[in-house]
Design goal:
Layout lengths: L3 E4 L2 E4 L4 E7 L7 E7 L6 E6 L5 E3 L7 E6 L4 E6 L8 E8 L14 E2 L3 E6 L1
Parallel strand pairs: 2-11
Antiparallel strand pairs: 1-3, 3-8, 4-5, 4-9, 5-6, 7-8, 9-10, 9-11
Amino acid sequence: QVQLVESGGGSVQAGGSLRLACVTSEDISKYYMAWFRQAPGEEREGVTGFERDGLTQYADSVKGRFTISKDNIKNTLYLQTDSLKPEDTGLYYCAARLCGALGSLAAHLYTNWGQGTQVTVSS
């Protein structure tokens, strides 16, 4: 079973940037990957993910500010977060699935999850 390890979180001021990374223990090209986040007292929400044919989907709240990418040689998934807002604060998780069903932001489709990396944005 693939293992996922996130890194890159931290504390920044509003308007700042962070680059999150998620290293996989297996060939990342076999999986559909995504990023989710969870704020205290809130449900886990999809941030961005890869659909079939490499297309990407973003939550409306992060469009134009966040960018997902991956490096198949390094088996690493990235999330570039720019123009951060206090409402972006949360625990960010990467997730993996083998199933190519549509719905890259649907948490129930993912079978493997990392432990998360904390992002805190202050105003």
